[in-house]
Each structure stands twice: as structure tokens, then as C-alpha cells.
């Protein structure tokens, strides 16, 4: 139970960090957009084109980080559900796979996210060891609880698959 709560804390920390990073990117994008409009009004096409390219890159990064935030929110929801139902066995398997997929994304190497991702991976691994190793793992099977958690995590996995497919085609 303690490991699940620690994992939930790290998931929320990652979500907060993603939110602040998205906010900073959006603020930077808006500032660049204002400069671009100013340059266009002065008829400086080369610089305004460079600003437009940078704005497009920032929009793409913000979109990708928003997708990751959606996956993190789904992980948060499934962890809360598992904590309430005290059912961790299936959850730890699914979370291990999802966290590994998250770590494969290029955005996970951003300095603001890298350390939190490593901590989250370690916390999920510990939760898996405790729940499967019999070291104090709690598992009350409530009808339908593991199916609901699986469904939530499957939605997160589908989002990750689409994200990885887009990354590989671009």
C-alpha cells in the first residue's frame, strides 16, 4: 500500500511538472507570436519566418507533452482506483509496461522530466516486486475492479501506441 501511495505521489509530481512545462512553453510561444506579428508589420519577412518556424516547433512539443499528460492522468486515475479497491497485482504489470513506453519517448529525456521519470520507474518496479513477491502485497479481489483498472490502462496504452506510431512516421 505504501509503495502504491509513493507511486501515486510520483505520478502526480510528474503531472504537475508536465503542466508547468506546458505553461512555460505556451508563454514562450505567445511571446514569440507577438514578436512575429511585430516583425511582419515592419515587413521583415526572414525573421518573421524564423519565428513562425519556432512557434510551430513549440506547438508540436506542447501537443506531445499534452498527450503524455493525458497518459499520466489515466495512470493517476487507475492508481487511485487500485488504492481504493486494494487490488495491485494486475496494476503493477500494466504500469511497468506503460512507464517503459513513456521512457521511450524523446520528451522523457527533457531535463525537467528525466529525474521524475526515473523515480517513477523505480517506484513502479518496487510496487511490482512487493505485490508479486508476497512481501506485504495486498490483494482483495472485488468483482469488476481489476477489469475497470485494465480498461483505464488500456485506454492509456492506446494513446501511447498512437503517439509512438506518429513519432515513428514523422
The CATH topology is: Ferritin
Number of domains: 1
Low-pLDDT runs? 135-144
What summary fits the major beta sheet? none
Radius of gyration: 20 Å
The percent range for strand residues is: under 5%
Question: Under the CATH scheme, which class?
Answer: Mainly Alpha
Quaternary structure type: single chain
CATH architectural group: Up-down Bundle
Decide which structural class fits the backbone.
Answer: mainly alpha
Number of helices: 5
Span between termini? 41 Å
Can you give a write-up of this model?
The chain has 170 residues and is mostly helical. It has one domain (2-169): Ferritin (Up-down Bundle). The protein is 85% helix and 0% strand. It has 5 helices and no strands. Helix 1 (2-41) packs antiparallel against helix 2 (45-85), helix 2 (45-85) packs antiparallel against helix 5 (145-169) and helix 3 packs parallel to helix 5 (145-169). It starts with a helix and ends with a helix. Mean pLDDT is 81; it is low at 135-144.
Please render the helix and strand layout as text:
Layout: H1 2-41, H2 45-85, H3 89-104, H4 111-133, H5 145-169
Helix pairs in contact: 1-2, 1-4, 2-5, 3-4, 3-5
In a nutshell, what does this entry contain?
The protein contains 5 helices and no strands. With 170 residues, the chain is mainly α.
Keywords:
5 helices, elongated, 170 residues, Ferritin
